[in-house]
Amino acid sequence: MLEKRVIVCLDVKDGRTTKGVKFKENIDIGDPVTMARFYYEEGVDELVFYDITASAEKRGIMIDVVARVAEQIFIPFSVGGGIGSVREMRAVLLAGAEKVSVNSQAVQNPGIIEEGASLFGRQCIVLGMDALTDPEMPSGYRVVIDGGRRKTGLDALEWVLKAEKLGAGEIVLNSIDADGTKNGYECRLTRMISEAVQIPVVASGGAGTPEHLFQVFANASADAALVASMVHFGTYSIRTIKEYLAERGIPVRMDF
Amino acid sequence: MKTCVVDYKAGNLRSVQTALEFLKADFIVTADPDVVAGADKLIFPGVGEARAAMSVLEETGLGKAIQEFHKTGKPLLGICLGSQIILESSEESDTLCLGLIPGKARLFPSTPGFKIPHMGWNQVSPVREHEVMKGVPTNASFYFVHSYYPEPGPDAVLAKSEYMISFPAALAKDNLVAFQFHPEKSGKYGLALLENFLAWKA
Q1: Model-level ipTM above the cut of 0.90
Q2: Which terminus of chain A is more exposed, N or C, with fewer CB under 10 A?
Q3: CATH superfamily of A5-247
Q4: Which pLDDT value is given to residue A19?
């Protein structure tokens, strides 16, 4: 039986891990390679690295981080943040990442999804989408970009369906309403998107307790769930989260 | 002892390479058909589309080299797409494949509630014993990403997984073993499979 994935997200700035609350006031919580190794040994199913480095000249640092992670971590991982060309996609994949994720750049240039999928295979191309509740939109959610700061004219459901058609192989669905609140994932949004597409959907934003993961798996058809601060600060371990899920009948990988 | 990894620009070449380096394996990556045909042990990775992969293998002469290598009876490992194009054909773009062993790669039947590709960790149950599976518990999980699955003759099925249907996840016949999942991305048990293959004398 296919297992539900628990994914740890690491925000990386200038080669160091940070976790932003509502994308503001980033605090340094360590070396991404050491942290990746720690979560790998704890039994995480996958890792996501978001490069939040602002300056272009420091982007090379991220490629070095990716290469060092790939040498030590034998589970899939993806890299996102600021990737806007197939040249940048290729650099990340060649350094050893399984997948690349595109977000704001894909909104501005949807062709990048199609181009990436045809060059590297659609399983490599992840669409990251930040969505915000908005009653004016047909689905009730609006796509926002640049870390939630800028509204677009796109409806969240329409954008996801378009991205799937263009060749996205997976969706990381981040609720800006829920992000950083620790009150749980946005289950309504996750279920709506997951039931509308054929590709896997990763729920993101709002996880604070293992119960939140249970809800999004049991009630919102998520294929995977992203966690960050609830594990980065030691509040929960990957094992305690997975034990909680397994006890409640959610299939998760326990033997690692 | 020359272990060769076939380089035909497959997507997971780099991951296979880093896993082998981690295991301190003595190996080379090569795109030279003569080196492939003369290897002592061969690893044939793969990610992507069957027809595209087959045309690269045909144009470069690597396909023929892999067929020649297989006839020598030395150990051969296929990974992911490499577990499909060792068969006679694939339903993906109706592609004629290498035909090392009888069988066909099939598309998962479309089933409500199941997404395609089959992506993520899934349990693998061996149907018999084999040296490459040594030390790996029954029902250990491995990482999959695929829309097609290999269907060899029943004598070549080594392990099965469940996704909509029960399908062959690992194959073994004579000097050949193949995994539909990615051992190079499946944590310690994946590394154990690669290590077992490196030690295996077919």
Answers
A1: yes
A2: N
A3: Aldolase class I (3.20.20.70)
A4: 65
